[in-house]
Amino acid sequence: MLTIHGRNNSSNVQKVLWALRELDVTFERRDAGGAFGVVDTPEYKAMNPNSRVPTMEEDGFVLWESNAIVRYLAGRHGSGILCPEDPQARADADRWMDWQQTTVAPQITPIFWNLVRTPEPDRDPAAIEAGRLGMIPLMQIMDRHLSGKSFMVGDGLTMADIPLGVMTYRWFALIDDRPAMANLEGWYARICERPAFRTTVLDIPLT
């Protein structure tokens, strides 16, 4: 049995849930993190010493770090589907997943925390604006890359699209003042048409 520990409104948990839905893998999800607590218990820390979500268990194997879990699931349950079989295509997908974690996430996090997690009187408009301005060139990198492509790595959805799709949803949902980017917008529209994305990301309120 595959078990995911984590609340469904966490962006990192959503990556994993989206991948599982795309792969049609049976799993159980247990609430943890945020208002649910759990992550500071000795039992949880024995699985994930970082006290963060998500954590995955499958047949005695425990794994944490959301992108690592998506890679594992794509390789184990979706080789040739979410995980490209060609080594260069797989490395390309890995590159975009790492870029999401190291470059995009730090830039959009202050926007999310201020607009979603912080009461309006306590928000930092300068941090929001800095995040908005910093996100524009990153989204333009994606827009240029997507020229002539349906998805981040070729014509089909791969594990590369999943972390970036979750982040891009927050960009479109939270920021109205955005320059037009036709390739990015087309890709995002294709992502939004996918039932797995709708049920695990779009249908979950930003909280």
Question: What count of helical segments does DSSP give?
Answer: 8
Give the total of beta strands.
4
Distance between the termini: 29 Å
Helix and strand content put the structural class at alpha+beta
Contiguous low-pLDDT stretches (5 residues minimum) are none
Strand arrangement, major sheet: 2-1-3-4
Integer-rounded radius of gyration:
17 Å
Morphology: globular
What percentage of residues falls in helices of 4 or more residues? 55-70%
Give structural notes.
There is one protein chain. This protein is of the alpha+beta class and 207 residues long. The protein has helices at 11-23, 42-47, 66-77, 87-117, 125-145, 161-174, 182-192, 195-202; strands at residues 2-5, 28-30, 55-58, 61-64. Strands 2-1-3-4 form a four-stranded mixed β-sheet, covered by helices on one side. The mean pLDDT is 97.
Summarize the structure in short.
By secondary structure, this protein is α+β, with helices and mostly antiparallel strands. It is built from eight helices and four strands, in the order E-H-E-H-E-E-H-H-H-H-H-H.
Task: List descriptors.
56% helix, 207 residues, single chain, alpha+beta, 4 strands, four-stranded mixed beta sheet
Could you outline the blueprint of secondary structure elements for this entry?
Blueprint: E1 2-5, H1 11-23, E2 28-30, H2 42-47, E3 55-58, E4 61-64, H3 66-77, H4 87-117, H5 125-145, H6 161-174, H7 182-192, H8 195-202
Parallel strand pairs: 1-2
Antiparallel strand pairs: 1-3, 3-4
Helix pairs in contact: 1-3, 1-6, 1-8, 4-5, 4-6, 5-7
